[in-house]
Structures are given as structure tokens and as C-alpha cells.
Design a protein that fits this description.
With about 110 residues, the chain is mainly alpha-helical. About 50% of the residues lie in helices and about 5% in strands. Strands 1-2 form a two-stranded antiparallel ribbon. The longest helix has 19 residues. The termini are close together.
Length: about 110
């Protein structure tokens, strides 16, 4: 893992990996177990979209700082708004302060 110089000590990718483990049921749908190539790509895309949708609690089409803070609180983690904004900046390609579905899928596909 890349060591972050930010106060969180966590890269956004590590954070999302942690979230993927929390939402593991989204990653284990039966349709993902198909053996032909194109269906695997479609199933992986569907799983990533399902995971994104589960993190996007207000159905805005974006994962924002407030949603991340609420989620980390449910997991027993305390993160400040500034820490969460620093995480978002690592993946926010369009600079709007939020993570959209394309940014999320690009990041998760880079595993």
C-alpha cells in the first residue's frame, strides 16, 4: 500500500477496499459466477455499480463527504470533514468535491 502523508494515513483506494469488504454481499451475486468472458465484465460492472449505489445513500449519483463520514461512523471510525475531503481529492478527477460513478469504477477497476 502507498503510504499517505495526509493526516488520515489512508489512501482513498484503501478506504474503498475496506468499504468493499463491508459490502461484500454486493460482490458475491450469483450472476457474477458465470464462466463466459463478456458476462464476467458485465457482472463486474454491475457489482461495482451496486457497491457505488449502496455507498450513495441519498441516490444523488455521487458519493460525497457527508456519506463517507456517516459510513465511517457506522463502522466505528471517526474521520473529520477535512480528512474525508483529502480522501475524495485523491480520486475526484473533475474537481467537484464528490466521487461520481465513473471515477469510482475507474478506481476500483485499477485494483
Amino acid at each position: 500500500a502507498v503510504v499517505s502523508t495526509q493526516s488520515t494515513g489512508m489512501e482513498f483506494k484503501e478506504f474503498l477496499d475496506m468499504m468493499a469488504n463491508v459490502f461484500q454481499y454486493h460482490l458475491s451475486h450469483p450472476e457474477a459466477q458465470q464462466s463466459n468472458g463478456p458476462s464476467i465484465d458485465m457482472a463486474q460492472n454491475k457489482r461495482l455499480e451496486d457497491l457505488f449505489d449502496s455507498l450513495d445513500s441519498d441516490d444523488s449519483g455521487f458519493i460525497d463527504a457527508e456519506e463517507i463520514i456517516k459510513l465511517t461512523e457506522k463502522l466505528g471510525e471517526k474521520m473529520t470533514l477535512e480528512e474525508v475531503q483529502d480522501l475524495i481529492k485523491q480520486v475526484d478527477k473533475d474537481g467537484d468535491g464528490r466521487v461520481n460513478k465513473d471515477e469510482f469504477k475507474r478506481l476500483m477497476a485499477s485494483k
